[in-house]
Design a protein that fits this description.
Bound molecules: methionine sulfoxide
Shape: globular
Number of helices: 4
Order of helices and strands: EEHHEEEHEEEH
Strand order of the largest sheet: 5-4-3-8-7-6
Largest sheet: 6 strands, antiparallel
Strand content: 25-35%
Length: 172
């Protein structure tokens, strides 16, 4: 559904989530508050987002779960495990239409069929977190979903990256 505004500009649902997140985080300098807000807005905006959350780099090569919405998530994911680990290790988006085709996938929930994991990278090149979105639907995510998640993560990396890197033991 699109909304036509006075000037004839059409906002897609993806545009609207992005604008809402931008507005909410406009003056926000706290990284955890930012992650929690992003996760809440995304999770409730799209019916096919069944688990939406961040894993944070807490020491070199190691992720721990951060703010999330959905069922129980695994607590720890080393960089050499899971789809999240692959995103963190390679600093590239992992768009996985069928998780069963990726043997390294960690099944926190047996109902998950597809997922997208996007790294959050600091300007200095460190992956400070990954944003993981899982769906019970097969091949649930389209190009608009991936573009939205990448755009949000890019902004987060720019804004919070260096402050977060400075606080991760062994990373700076
Ligand atoms: N899907 C992830 C594991 C995390 S949970 O699904 C919440 C992975 O394989 O990295």
């Amino acid at each position: 559904m699109s909304h036509v505004h006075g000037l004839g500009m059409v906002h897609t649902p993806h545009d609207e989530v992005r604008l809402r997140i931008d507005g909410l985080l406009k003056d926000e300098d706290d990284w955890v508050t930012a992650m929690a807000t992003v996760v809440c807005e995304l999770h409730h905006a799209f019916d096919h987002f069944h688990w939406t959350g961040f894993y944070r780099t807490v020491r070199p090569e190691h992720l721990k779960v951060g703010p999330y919405q959905g069922g129980h998530g695994c607590l720890d994911i080393p960089f050499d495990q899971g789809i999240c680990g692959a995103a963190a290790r390679t600093a590239t988006t992992q768009d996985v239409p069928d998780v069963h085709a990726r043997p390294e996938h960690i099944a926190c929930s047996s109902s998950t069929n597809s997922e997208v994991v996007v790294p959050v990278t600091s300007p200095s090149g460190h992956v400070i977190a990954v944003l993981d979105v899982d769906s019970d639907d097969p091949a649930a995510f389209d190009g608009d979903d991936v573009a939205l998640l990448e755009s949000i993560c890019s902004t987060l990396g720019e804004r919070y990256g260096e402050a977060v890197v400075a606080r991760i033991p062994g990373l700076a």
